[in-house]
Design a protein that fits this description.
elongated; OB fold (Dihydrolipoamide Acetyltransferase, E2P); alpha+beta; 1 helix; binds copper (II) ion; five-stranded mixed beta barrel; 99 residues
Length: 99
């Protein structure tokens, strides 16, 4: 191995190690509130498929702000932002039901 080859190899290795893992992907989340769980500060939502992450299902999610729990009730249509592998709903907003 020439010195130059070694240097190039070293540079290539450093570049591949320097790459930071990709940031968690944000997804649009839509669904219908099934239950508001004040004791666990979570909300059970029958949600639509989250493209690229999760199929449609009913499950409980944590919320970014506890105060939103008082504004939600079963039957509410909501949209929010979710980040991959983080079961928390961010910036929940009331949504209009799909026609
Ligand atoms: Cu889910």
């Amino acid at each position: 191995m020439t010195k130059l080859t070694a240097v190039i190899l070293f540079l290539m290795l450093s570049i591949s190690f320097a790459q930071t893992p990709p940031k968690k992907k944000a997804h649009l989340f839509r669904g219908k509130v099934e239950q508001v769980n004040l004791s666990t500060k979570s909300v059970t939502v029958n949600h639509e498929k989250v493209e690229g992450w999760m199929d449609a299902m009913t499950m409980a999610y944590a919320v970014d702000k506890e105060s939103i729990l008082k504004e939600l009730k079963p039957g509410d249509q909501i949209k929010a932002t979710v980040y991959e592998d983080d079961f928390t709903l961010y910036e929940i907003q009331k949504d209009t039901p799909k026609k």
